[in-house]
Amino acid sequence: MQALSRVGAIAWQENEREQVMYITQRLQEIEKQMLKEKSTDLQLWRSLGEAYQNVRIPKLAVGAYEQILTLVRQQKDVNTELATLNTLGELHLSWFDYSQAAKTYEELLNLAINRGDRNNELAYLQQLAYIYEQGKQPRQAINVLNKLAAIYNRNKNLTQVPALKIKIAENYQSLVRENPNFLQEAFNNYQEAYVIAWKLEQYVAASEALQKLIRLYRSQNQINEALQASRILLETETLATNLYGLMQTYDQMGEMYLEKKEDGKALAAFEKGLEIARQLKHQETYFAQKIETLSKKNL
Questions:
Q1: Residue 66, in any domain of the structure
Q2: Please, which residues have CB within 8 angstroms of residue 252's CB and are 6 or more apart in sequence?
Q3: Do you know which InterPro entries this protein is assigned to (predicted)?
Q4: Which of 13, 130, 205, 296 could form a disulfide with 197 if both were Cys (CB 3.0 to 4.6 A apart)?
């Protein structure tokens, strides 16, 4: 087995496909025999799993490690059970099987909670948040992200919370078509994100939350609320000394004032945008044309 594993690793590295196929077939024959004999040889199963990994066939490696998991659970070997579950989680992720990866890390999470292992509880929640995001499962992602936020709040480690709140809001937003009641949850979480970020002087995170909040208001034709959030965004971009962000916000506000038929306020916003554009030497013509069009319109 070890010789096959070594040769398999070399064959894969040197892109010898026929050799890899031959070794894979040999490994499958060995596995078939082991299953027939109901082998309880942990080391042999582990060698088989490693050999499958060496020829980069994680799907087959999973079968070997599932056999190991069954055996170590019968032996009540908790440490090896944890190590095996971690290996299985990594294998599922390596071929993008997010549903199986989620099941594995949920198991690991429950074991960590039962043992009072706070460090691994946090690590598994972070991994699950990634898995549910990649697997496009917003409801599960929201559940995990809320648990993470609760832990950070409990530990008074608020620096991570704004980014989590933004992700929670994005997941709620993705569910609005399915259930319009989630819209308010999206608003609430974006608002919480920028309030916490502002208090922590995380002005970049505050800006991100406000920008997403403004886009959401505009998508719902709530222009007054979008303008109110834009004024807070102006303060945030000023504190972050983000001139480009300020310029974009004035442009956005100008467009919203035009929607409200408030040409005077739109003109003032575009003029502010032009001032910053001149400092940046960027988009000067764009703002000048906006101002010229509005000025002619109101002659």
A1: yes
A2: 214, 230
A3: Bac_ResReg_Asp_Phosphatase, TPR-like_helical_dom_sf, TPR_rpt
A4: 205
pLDDT in tens, 43-64: 999 999 999 999 999 999 999 9
Same domain, 15 and 39: yes
Residue 183 burial (10 A CB sphere; 0-12, 13-18, 19+): middle
Q: Give, for 205, the enclosing helix (H) or strand (E).
A: helix 203-219
Residue 278 lies in a domain: no
**Gap between the terminal Cα atoms of the chain:** 87
Structure tokens at 282: 């960027």
**Does residue 72 belong to any structural domain of this protein?**
yes
The domain of 2 spans 1-76
Q: Between helices 284-297 and 263-280, what is the axis angle to 10°?
A: 160
Q: How far is CA 116 from CA 77, 85, 86, 110, 208, in A?
A: 18, 18, 18, 10, 35
Per-residue pLDDT tens digits for 83-128:
999 999 999 999 999 999 999 999 999 999 999 999 999 999 999 9
**DSSP letter, residue 159:** G
Encode pLDDT of 178-212 as tens digits: 999 999 999 999 999 999 999 999 999 999 999 99
In a domain, 297, yes or no: no
Q: Which of 87, 117, 135 is the last residue of a domain?
A: 135
Which pLDDT band, with edges at 50, 70 and 90, does 299 fall under? low
- Say if residues 5 and 44 touch (Cβ distance below 8 Å): no
51, HSE (Cβ side, Cα atoms, 13 Å): 27
Distance between CA atoms of residues 10 and 288, nearest Å: 64
Cα distances from 36 to residues 25, 70, 152, 236, in angstroms, run 17, 16, 50, 67
